Amino acid sequence: MSATVPRTSFPDLRRDFAASLVVFLVALPLCVGVAVASGVPAELGLVTGIVGGLVTGMMRGSSLQVSGPAAGLTVLVLEAVTAFGLSVLGAIVLAAGLLQILLGLLRLGRCFRAVSVSVVEGMLAGIGLVLIAGQLYAMAGLDAPAAGLDKIAGLPGALLRAAGNTEALLSVALGAGTIAVLVLWRRLPGRARAVPAPLAAVGLATLTVLLAGLPVATVEVRGLLDSVRPPSAEAFGELASLAAIGTVLAFTLIASAESLFGAAAVDRLHDGPRTDYDKELVAQGTGNAVCGVLGALPMTAVIVRSAANVQAGARTKAARVLHGVWLLLFAALFPSVLAYIPVPALAAVLVHAGGKLVPAAELAHLWRRQRGEAFVLGVTALAIVTIGMFEGVVAGLALAVAKTAWEASHLRLDIVDHGTGPIRVRLIGNATFLRLPNLLDSLEALPPERPVAMDLTEVHHLDHACRTALDTWSERHRGTVTGHTKALSK
């Protein structure tokens, strides 16, 4: 009787090792770019990427999803740093992470899947528009206005200022070239595309600046240990303000929704184990809690890195853990390399990423098929651009709930009148206060002298407002019919 030879895990390890290198090369420029665009030291982007690999990557939830600083949170982080200062950012991220853990332990992770897709896409579209507008200023070496609407409105004037400045024109040209590389990279032969497009674009831009000696801004390097600053007791005191609480809730909602929607997308890319949404929410919260303690950027699961991980052949969570190891080694051994990276190239990477957040094709499809959903998407994005992140998300959620309530309260009236005898009225569907005006208009239009027989057997739900209104109308109409009958008998 021969012994069964256990299946070796080395084939998976080889695939995971190769995939981790690909994800590392994708993550490196994005970590740095998101940090710079968020108004924090570039090293903090690497810290969040490291935590996303070594902490969140080790935990259960989604085995192939990769976490780190995301373009979708850039605008919100910049607003938080501007409003409260870098010292308070860690406290906000820590609070959001603890809230995510609590929601996961309460098994509310799946509830985020019930959030309207149109709200999430509208949220990302609004973020993308503000991100693109802000980074276009950075591409020209100009300071961007604080408000999202001011960023967009000020672009023509910024373009005119850049046109009259040679250094600004060189900076814009470098950024435009970086975007061109990102767009055209996928059309190259397969071997050339082995290098991830973001790394290739930033690498070519860096090489161009070094060889040509272009006078463009480069990343400021402070050192990894100097950039990590745990929040102080005074920073936690700032969380008592209503504005800080709103920011914590916005961080929690956006990071959780983006991560869990991303998990659903990643699950469609492979046939391995499915995501446990509650455990994934706990893993994301733990990562954000650690990032908060270190004073770093918040994290989400990032679909670009996750898709690269799956496409590179990853089989287990070892790939995402190893990508965190490579980021740690780079931050420890080669931090000075960051000082050579041109800021316009990083801004261009984020302009390209922001463009992917705006679902133009999806909006056109929704407008043809489901205009209500398209309206929710558009209003959410517009509110984020014109008012603010938190207010825009709340407005989108409220509009989605109102739309769903309106559609769920569908009520049909069938009125049959044979000319003699009682008029027969049959109600079909859900009778709620939302349909009450139309319902009463239809009933009050009936001849007051004719008796009415009302059939409610096909009403699935009759709320208190409708029941009271129907009883009141019925008593009034019965009195009208009786009075008319008495008048005829005289």
Automatic annotation (TrEMBL):
Transmembrane segments: 17-37, 83-106, 118-140, 168-185, 197-219, 239-266, 325-354, 374-402
UniProt-annotated location(s): Membrane
Keywords, ordered alphabetically: Membrane, Transmembrane, Transmembrane helix
Domain SLC26A/SulP transporter: 13-379
Pfam family, one: Sulfate_transp
InterPro entries (UniProt xref): SLC26A/SulP_dom, SLC26A/SulP_fam
Predominant subcellular localization, coarse grouping: membrane
Source superkingdom: Bacteria
Entry's Gene Ontology BP terms: transmembrane transport
GO CC aspect terms: membrane
Membrane-protein topology: Multi-pass membrane protein
Protein's name in the database: SulP family inorganic anion transporter
Species of the source: Streptomyces qinzhouensis
Source organism phylogeny: Bacteria, Bacillati, Actinomycetota, Actinomycetes, Kitasatosporales
